[in-house]
Amino acid sequence: MPKTVKFDEVFEHSEFENIFNGKGVVTQPTPTNKPKSTVTIIEFDKEKALEFFGDEFKGLTGNIWSRGGRASFLRSQMLGTTEVKINKLLVTYSQNSMKCSLKFEVYQTSGFGWGVGFGWMYKNIDEVW
Questions:
Q1: Which long-range contacts (CB under 8 A, 24 or more apart) does 64-67 make?
Q2: At 53, is the pLDDT very low, low, confident or very high (cuts 50, 70, 90)?
Q3: Taking the model in full, what pTM does it have?
Q4: Rounded to an integer, what distance in angstroms lies between the CA atom of residue 114 and that of residue 112?
């Protein structure tokens, strides 16, 4: 089950264009999809995201946590670490607010199995951006 990690940044339109112009697949605006929109949406599959960021996303790790609460009222506990890989990236940019959102869909590749009642959180992905 993939998880999502989201970052919001503020960019001038020229900065956004310099970084993302010609990269990924533009899904909005296009001639057939909201051509006058001030919101730009760019999708990157796994290969294009890794090509765009290079070696920056190698060695990402996350923490695996038990889920607390439930009928026993137990606290969540960290169970260990896991390797995390990028599955896809969605970039959304609003020219009006100059807000750029990067939504990374990531998945676990090692460590504990998913199992019922287990989830995981991120540890080192914020060091990249």
A1: 64/108, 64/111, 64/112, 64/118, 64/119, 64/120, 65/118, 65/119, 65/120, 65/121, 66/117, 66/118, 67/117, 67/118, 67/119
A2: confident
A3: 0.73
A4: 7
* pLDDT of 2: 79
Query: What tokens appear for 34 in the block?
Result: 């909201």
Structure tokens at 20: 């993302």
* Mean pLDDT on 84-103: 93
- Which residues fall within 8 angstroms of residue 120, CB to CB, at 6 or more apart? 3, 62, 63, 64, 65, 82, 108, 111
